[in-house]
UniProtKB/TrEMBL annotation:
<keyword id="KW-0963">Cytoplasm</keyword>
<keyword id="KW-0698">rRNA processing</keyword>
<keyword id="KW-0808">Transferase</keyword>
<feature type="binding site">
    <location>
        <position position="77"/>
    </location>
    <ligand>
        <name>S-adenosyl-L-methionine</name>
    </ligand>
</feature>
<dbReference type="InterPro" id="IPR020596">
    <property type="entry name" value="rRNA_Ade_Mease_Trfase_CS"/>
</dbReference>
<feature type="binding site">
    <location>
        <position position="28"/>
    </location>
    <ligand>
        <name>S-adenosyl-L-methionine</name>
    </ligand>
</feature>
<comment type="function">
    <text>Specifically dimethylates two adjacent adenosines (A1518 and A1519) in the loop of a conserved hairpin near the 3'-end of 16S rRNA in the 30S particle. May play a critical role in biogenesis of 30S subunits.</text>
</comment>
<dbReference type="InterPro" id="IPR001737">
    <property type="entry name" value="KsgA/Erm"/>
</dbReference>
<dbReference type="InterPro" id="IPR029063">
    <property type="entry name" value="SAM-dependent_MTases_sf"/>
</dbReference>
<keyword id="KW-0489">Methyltransferase</keyword>
<dbReference type="Pfam" id="PF00398">
    <property type="entry name" value="RrnaAD"/>
</dbReference>
<feature type="binding site">
    <location>
        <position position="122"/>
    </location>
    <ligand>
        <name>S-adenosyl-L-methionine</name>
    </ligand>
</feature>
<feature type="binding site">
    <location>
        <position position="103"/>
    </location>
    <ligand>
        <name>S-adenosyl-L-methionine</name>
    </ligand>
</feature>
<comment type="similarity">
    <text>Belongs to the class I-like SAM-binding methyltransferase superfamily. rRNA adenine N(6)-methyltransferase family. RsmA subfamily.</text>
</comment>
<keyword id="KW-0949">S-adenosyl-L-methionine</keyword>
<dbReference type="GO" id="GO:0052908">
    <property type="term" value="F:16S rRNA (adenine(1518)-N(6)/adenine(1519)-N(6))-dimethyltransferase activity"/>
</dbReference>
<feature type="domain" description="Ribosomal RNA adenine methylase transferase N-terminal">
    <location>
        <begin position="35"/>
        <end position="210"/>
    </location>
</feature>
Length: 280
């Protein structure tokens, strides 16, 4: 018997439904239900929330979210083989789990959710990064979600929480930290997964701020940051040449030395620069 609910242990679920992990779908499963409950707890108080879970697989994290009291879980899974196993969980938690068989990059699950909404996922890293960027760059802020609790490759997690002056600092850190509070909540060794991936992982928890930390136009800031880090070793007066004709003056007006490099510039100064460029 597993410890968090009355459903069978995940190894039995995987054997019964023949869910051998597929590399093409980035499948590295979490089979320890105490660990998945611990990850679910990183998402905060779920009792009043709908949780959007992407990539539930055999349902380890799904069971963690439900046993931790999520009001409702909407789980989007691409692998049709997993759906029967997920429906067994839905039957054990009547009215609290909706399973959607589809590609999270293509479907819009918003119609299935009622605010407040939190998002939790252990996804293949490429899909996770693409969804993170989408969730961080909606047309309006605050976004539809209150928090994101996401598993990443450790190196990607470090890029999300990175500070100026480090190699990991770049577009992802600025996007995440401009309008959210981001921290690494848990670190996991490869052995926590079946099969184990090559690298360590970490759970990142992001909380949406009610408004951006510093004022800036989202599209301008995004353009400036993309150009600055595209050529991160160059001086800003060179890497940002294409962004504004009088870039040296704009940099100076924003309090940035034109000879500085992107890696040294804090978020506040990038926002000041975006405002200066918008003025011109
Ligand atoms: N959440 C489960 C766990 O922690 O054991 C499974 C994690 S496994 C790393 C990633 C899961 O995401 C797999 O079940 C895979 O089939 C699913 N997946 C991959 N790409 C997806 C996509 N584009 N949309 C929805 N699910 C996807």
């Amino acid at each position: 018997m597993s410890t968090i609910d009355n459903l069978p242990p995940l190894r039995e679920v995987i054997a019964a439904h023949q869910l051998s992990a597929r590399k093409s779908l980035g499948q590295n499963f979490l089979l320890d239900l105490n660990l998945t409950a611990k990850i679910a707890r990183q998402a905060g108080d779920l009792t009043e929330c709908d949780v959007l879970e992407i990539g539930p697989g055999p349902g380890g994290l799904t069971r963690g979210l439900l046993s931790e009291g999520a009001r409702t879980v909407v789980a989007v899974e691409k692998d049709t083989r997993c759906i029967a196993a997920l429906n067994d969980i839905a039957a054990a938690y009547p009215g609290r789990l909706e399973v959607i068989n589809g590609d999270a990059l293509e479907i819009d699950p918003l119609a299935h959710l009622t605010p407040p909404i939190r998002i939790a996922a252990n996804l293949p890293y490429n899909v996770g990064t693409e969804l993170l960027v989408r969730w961080l760059t909606p047309p309006e802020w605050p976004p539809f979600w209150q928090s994101l609790t996401l598993m990443f490759q450790r190196e990607v997690a470090e890029r999300i929480v990175a500070q100026p002056g480090s190699k990991a600092y770049g577009r992802l850190a600025l996007l995440a930290q401009w309008r959210a509070e981001a921290r690494i909540a848990l670190s996991l060794p490869p052995g926590a997964f079946t099969p184990p991936p090559k690298v360590s992982s970490a759970v990142v928890h992001l909380t949406a701020l009610p408004q951006p930390r510093y004022p800036a136009d989202a599209a301008t800031l995004s353009r400036v940051v993309a150009a600055a880090f595209n050529q991160r070793r160059k001086m800003l007066r060179a890497s940002l040449k294409g962004v504004a004709p009088d870039i040296e003056d704009r940099l100076t007006a924003a309090g940035i030395k034109p000879t500085d490099r992107a890696e040294q510039i804090p978020l506040e100064a990038f926002c000041a620069l975006a405002r200066e460029i918008r003025k011109s």
